[in-house]
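Forwarding the complex inputs:
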Amino acid sequence: MEPGLQQAPQLHTEIISWFTANARDLPWRRPGCSPWGVFVSEIMLQQTPVVRVLPVWEQWMKRWPEPSALAAEPSGEAVRAWGRLGYPRRALRLHAAAAAMTDRFNGSVPATREELLTLPGVGTYTAAAVASFAFGRRETVVDTNIRRVHARALSGKALPAPALNAAEMRLAVELLPDDDAASVAWNASVMELGALVCTARSPKCAVCPVRQRCAWVAAGEPAPDYVPKGQAWAGTDRQVRGALMAVLRQAREPVPRNLLLGPADLTTAAAATDNNTATSSAEADAGTDAAALAKLHALQAPAEQLERALAGLLADKLAEENDAGLQLPV
DNA sequence: TACGCGTGGTG
DNA sequence: TCACCAAGCGT
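Prediction (whole assembly, three chains):
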C-alpha cells in the first residue's frame, strides 16, 4: 500500500476526471439539493442500492422538505413511507434525527462531523459523508466502495478486510487531497468508481481509468484471501419479522394478534364454509393485505418464533399493542 | 470485535 | 437456481 501513495496525484486527476464524465445524475448530488436532502439520502443508502432509494427519496422530500416537518409527525408515518427499503429501524432513527435537529440544531442539519455523530443512525461513514457532500468540508469518507477501490488499486488485494481497520483508515487519510473542494470531489469520485466500475463481483477493468496503476491488476488479479460470510435468512427470526412488517406497514387499523400468529383459525373457518372467501373477508375486515398475510403464514413459523419476532418489533417500537391487537403508531 | 438487522436484484 | 451483495449502525 505504501508504494502506491507516490502516484496519489495522478490517481486524483484520473479518477476525478472519470467522475466528471461518467457520474450518475442523482438528485441528492444536484447543486440545489439541501443538506437535509443529502442527509436523508445517506441514511436511505445505508446497505440499500441507489435504484431502490430514488423513488422513496423523491416522495420523502416532497412530503417532508425539512427536518421539522418530519419531526412533527408520528414515527409510524416514517416507517410507512420507508416502504420496502429494508432495515426499518433506519426510518425510526431518521425520524429521531429530525427531532434532534429540531430540538438541538435550530431545525437544521448540523455541519460538522462531531455534531453529526451525535445524531441517531449516524456513524463514522455518514457523518463524514454529510459533512463532505452537503457542506463541502474536508473529511475522510470511507464506505464499502472506497474500501474496495483502495484494496485493489493500492493494496493489490481482491477485497478489503472483513471489517474496516486502522491501516485502511490511515491509507484513506493519506490519500485525501489537501484542498477542500478537491477532497469532496475525490470522495465522490472514488465511491462512484467503486459503485460502477470497481464492483465486488465482476469489476469492469477494461473501462477503468486507473487500470494501468492498479496493484491488483499488476499482481495478476489474485483471488480473495478469505471467504465472505453469508447472510443467513431462511428460517430466521429476521425473515419472520420482515413478513410481519409487510402486514403491519399497510394496515390502517389494529391487526388482531391471532391473524398474525397463525392461520389455524382461518384455516378452520375457511374449511367450514367453502374456499378462501371467508379468509379474504376476514382479512379485509382487519384492514390487512391478503397477499402479505399469506406470505407470513406460508413461512409456517412455530408459534414461539412468531411471538419472539413480534416481541422484537415491539421492542423496536415498530408497533404498539392495544386492546384490539397491533398497529403501527398513528 | 463480531454479530444482527430487511429487502430485492443479479451473476 | 441461489448465494452474494448493496453509500452502515449499534451493541
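Residues 41-50, 52-53, 86-87, 89-90, 93, 120-126, 129, 141, 143-146, 191, 194-195, 199-201, 228, 230-231, 233 of chain A lie near DNA strand C (CB under 10 Å from a C1').
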